[in-house]
Specification:
The chain has six helices and five strands. The chain is α/β, with parallel strands linked by helices.
């Protein structure tokens, strides 16, 4: 089981994002304050969980957390400020919605812009070490996946229902066949290296 807290004396919020490596759609982030006594043997890095486990944990987290929030930054803003800054901005936006205000932030990864008035610790692979960061990873992932499934109804040619905007083959093929959508990140290498039939247009 992951660690329940970094420091016993502070109100801690775990923060994580989802969608940095995608070609389309927003980047989502979540911030979660869990009770110090919260325990769960299944909760882990969202990438290590099945979709069903993530959905079940989302309801549990939302009902048992002291506070939680989810925020996003869309593709045009990602193109404007770059994905790292957009990921951090989405975390800041989620943190701003937390009540009570946390006294310490646990950030997944090794880069973060300080949030005014709240110290932070960057923890590499923190979503596999601390329950609060893992909880944030589950919320960010499930909310983003849900959003991308809705976008799929508008642009089914990219198969976002299945790939959620990541650079899978069907997504690349949709780009070659139909071009980009308003939700694509134009600053990314959208077309990449895809081996296509010689007569593919």
């Amino acid at each position: 089981m992951l660690k329940s807290h970094y420091s016993p004396e502070f109100i801690e919020a775990g923060c994580d994002e989802a969608g940095r490596g995608c070609l389309a759609g927003p980047v989502f982030a979540a911030a979660v304050i869990l009770p110090k006594k919260f325990r769960n043997e299944i909760l882990n890095d969202s990438k290590m969980l099945t979709p069903r486990q993530r959905d079940e944990l989302r309801g549990l987290i939302e009902s048992e957390a002291i506070a939680w929030a989810v925020a996003s930054v869309d593709a045009p803003e990602i193109d404007k400020i770059n994905i790292l800054n957009a990921s951090i901005l989405s975390m800041h936006k989620a943190i701003a919605e937390l009540h009570p205000v946390p006294q310490l932030l646990l950030i997944d990864g090794n880069r973060f812009h300080p949030y005014p008035g709240i110290p932070h610790h960057c923890i590499v692979k923190g979503d596999a070490k601390y329950l609060s960061i893992a909880a944030a990873s589950v919320l960010a992932k499930t909310y983003r996946d849900e959003f991308m499934r809705k976008l799929h109804l508008e642009f089914p040619v990219y198969d976002w229902f299945n790939n959620k905007g990541y650079p899978c083959r069907k997504h690349r093929e949709g780009l070659y066949a139909y071009g980009i959508s308003p939700y694509h990140r134009k600053s990314y290498n959208l077309f990449g290296q895809l081996r296509l039939p010689i007569n593919y247009k």
